[in-house]
TrEMBL record:
UniProt xrefs under InterPro entries: Aminotransferase_I/II_large (IPR004839), HTH_trans_reg/aminotransferase (IPR051446), PyrdxlP-dep_Trfase (IPR015424), PyrdxlP-dep_Trfase_major (IPR015421), Tscrpt_reg_HTH_GntR (IPR000524), WH-like_DNA-bd_sf (IPR036388), WH_DNA-bd_sf (IPR036390)
SUPFAM superfamilies: PLP-dependent transferases, Winged helix' DNA-binding domain
PANTHER family named in the record: HTH-TYPE TRANSCRIPTIONAL REGULATORY PROTEIN GABR
Similarity comment text for this entry: In the C-terminal section; belongs to the class-I pyridoxal-phosphate-dependent aminotransferase family.
Tree of life domain: Bacteria
Boundaries of every HTH gntR-type domain copy: 12-80
Gene3D superfamilies: Type I PLP-dependent aspartate aminotransferase-like (Major domain), Winged helix-like DNA-binding domain superfamily/Winged helix DNA-binding domain
Name of this chain's protein: DNA-binding transcriptional MocR family regulator
A GO MF term: DNA binding
Biological source species: Microbacterium amylolyticum
Length: 442
């Protein structure tokens, strides 16, 4: 469709109405994937509205993942989903080093715990948190939060927790600070909800101080931070960095700080908090999916009382609560010595395999910073997409860092890869192939 024909279909005079007209054109197929939109100036002139109105309309569409800005090349209808997602490459003949999954053989066997989980049935109106899990979780969290007697909530995993926490505090188009590069699920949650994502750079010590300060100057109402094993970089907050971030936040006590400590029991790094003792709105989220398995969709949220009350409104007993069978199963495993030994074995395995691969890459002059987590953030000094394409020719399916970026116009120069499932021979072959792929992508 020509721009002139497209503009004639717009009748709205507000940012929301213009965005809705564009969205309708996309839904009807009048604007296909990759189609260009009129420039802000030309559309504003044609409609007789202020340019800022069109800017706001395009921003709404971008936050929803419907369009993407290409700088001087203009604004275009998105060719793909707003964000990628974690998971296997189904039916691919390539060796998958992109998925980011835990090792299934190192997830505790739940069969023995199932017997103790199937106690009496739970009826409508009962407490949403099973007493056994609540007692265990309180002891687990008490040393890592500003309030010695936190309010606890159980959600259907960390994704559910972050989504509900943001929803109880924000309205559409509110600004939220997220790490860049960042966790795919967080990026997706923010975009689909229509919040404005404010990118905060991440370095070897975690979220940067200047980045957070800049985000706060832009009026963010919430911050999502990964204190350790940041995905995709593997960075963990240093003691000094956490202290500096707390000092910046001291002047913003009502900005909601969500700490997503997803790796918790598997981490080799200490937990360091950016939530100060006087901070008013905060939440610490710990899920069990990395060590009890993704299908154990359960997370524990410790938060201030105000946030807990608002979060509880979205978890009605009997409708949106988390199954007590699931809670009891998680509790039985978390208190079982054999299961905990398996979790410790998994933590050692991930750390050892990642360290071994870093050493192999070092021999090829590829310096991968020491990190934590299931994956490695590998600098390739080239367009990562081109390196990933070269790896495909050599039988490997890797993930370019572009998918984890927020609003970057330049191509990433990192790959996020998963290597803990590869044996020594496979790791050696991958290291050689990666070095060759980087050279070929020159």
């Amino acid at each position: 469709m020509e721009h002139s024909d497209f503009v004639h279909k717009i009748t709205g005079r507000t940012a929301a109405a213009i965005a809705e007209d564009v969205r309708a054109a996309i839904d009807r197929g009048d604007l296909g994937a990759g189609a260009s939109l009129p420039s802000v100036r030309s559309l504003a002139d044609d409609l007789g509205v202020n340019r800022n109105t069109v800017v706001a309309a395009y921003r709404h569409l971008s936050q929803a993942g419907l369009v993407e800005s290409r700088g001087r090349a203009g604004t275009h209808v998105s060719r793909s989903a707003a964000t990628a997602q974690e998971g296997f490459a189904l039916e691919s003949p390539l060796r998958d080093i992109a998925a980011g999954n835990p090792d299934a053989s190192l997830i505790p066997d739940a069969s023995r715990a199932l017997a103790s989980a199937s106690a009496r049935p739970v009826l409508y109106g009962e407490p949403v948190i099973d007493p056994g899990l609540e007692s265990w979780a309180r002891e687990w969290l008490v040393g890592d939060i500003p309030d010695g007697a936190p309010r606890l909530t159980i959600t259907n995993g960390a994704f559910d927790a972050v989504e509900r926490l943001l929803a109880q505090a924000l309205m559409r188009d509110d600004a939220v600070a997220i790490e860049d590069p960042g966790f795919l699920a967080t990026i997706r949650t923010v975009r689909l909800a229509g919040y404005r994502a404010i990118a905060v750079p991440v370095d070897a010590e975690g979220m940067t101080v200047d980045g957070l300060r800049d985000a706060l100057s832009q009026g963010v109402r919430a911050i999502v931070v990964t204190p350790r094993a940041q995905n995709p970089t593997g960075a963990s907050l240093s003691s000094q960095r956490a202290k500096d971030l707390r000092e910046v936040l001291a002047d913003h006590p009502y900005v909601l700080v969500i700490a997503d400590d997803h790796f918790s029991l598997l981490s080799k790094r200490p937990y360091r908090s950016i939530i100060g003792p006087a901070h008013e709105r905060w939440a610490l989220v710990r899920s069990v999916s990395k060590f009890l398995g993704p299908d154990m969709s359960l997370a524990i949220v410790a938060s201030d009382a105000h946030t807990a009350d608002r979060l509880a409104l979205r978890l009605s007993p009997g409708t949106t609560w988390v199954s007590h069978l699931l809670q009891r199963l998680a509790h039985a495993q978390l208190t079982d010595l054999s299961a905990r030994a398996t979790i410790e074995e998994a933590a050692d395995h991930y750390a050892e395999r990642n360290t071994a691969f870093r050493s192999l890459l070092d021999a090829y002059g590829i310096d991968v910073p020491v990190g934590d987590g299931l994956t490695l953030w590998v600098p390739v000094r080239r367009d990562a997409g081109r390196v990933a394409a070269q790896l495909m020719r050599r039988g490997w399916l890797a993930r370019a860092g572009d998918e984890f970026q927020i609003g970057h116009r330049e191509h990433s120069r990192h790959l996020r890869i998963t290597v803990h499932h590869l044996d020594d021979t496979e790791q050696e072959r991958l290291a050689a192939d990666l070095a060759s792929a980087i050279h070929a992508a020159t």
